[in-house]
Amino acid sequence: MSDDDRRARVAASPVARLATLRADGTPRLVPVTFVLLDGLLWSAVDDVKPKSGRRLARLDDVDRDPRAALLVDHYEDDWDRLWWVRVDGTAEIRDAPACRPALDALAAKYPRYRDAPPPGPVLVLTPERWAGWTAR
């Protein structure tokens, strides 16, 4: 799978799984909405899905250890069509007002965000390594 193909598959995917590291070093894996913009991966805390608050455990993980990964995959019963892309990188947390282009891109990608824009904070993943596999 070429670099361009990996990026195109990630950009077109509606959901990914974000992996961060808990304080004890074990992985935390959560599904996230996201957008690929200017070579970075952006995900914002929203008010659409039920949560226990805006300060999510994944944000504390990133503050403590910025290593993170994003996994996008595709499954079908026809296993010849399976694929996955993983992006390993360094994450940081930013305030939403400083991320207007990313929030606009999220609203363009996800219709629910048009009516209820994510208030943030915003998690930004800077890719360091792209890996992928496809059955074809």
TrEMBL record:
A GO molecular function held by the record: coenzyme F420 binding
UniProt keyword list: Oxidoreductase
Gene3D superfamilies assigned to the protein according to its UniProt record, in alphabetical order: Electron Transport, Fmn-binding Protein, Chain A
GO cellular component: cytosol
SUPFAM superfamilies membership: FMN-binding split barrel (SSF50475)
InterPro entries in the record: F420-dep_enz_PPOX_Rv0121, F420H2_bilvrd_red/Heme_oxyg, Pyridox_Oxase_N, Split_barrel_FMN-bd
Domain Pyridoxamine 5'-phosphate oxidase N-terminal as annotated: residue spans: 6-133
Database matches in NCBIfam families: Rv0121_F420 (TIGR03668)
Protein name in UniProt: F420-dependent enzyme
Native species: Pseudonocardia dioxanivorans (strain ATCC 55486 / DSM 44775 / JCM 13855 / CB1190)
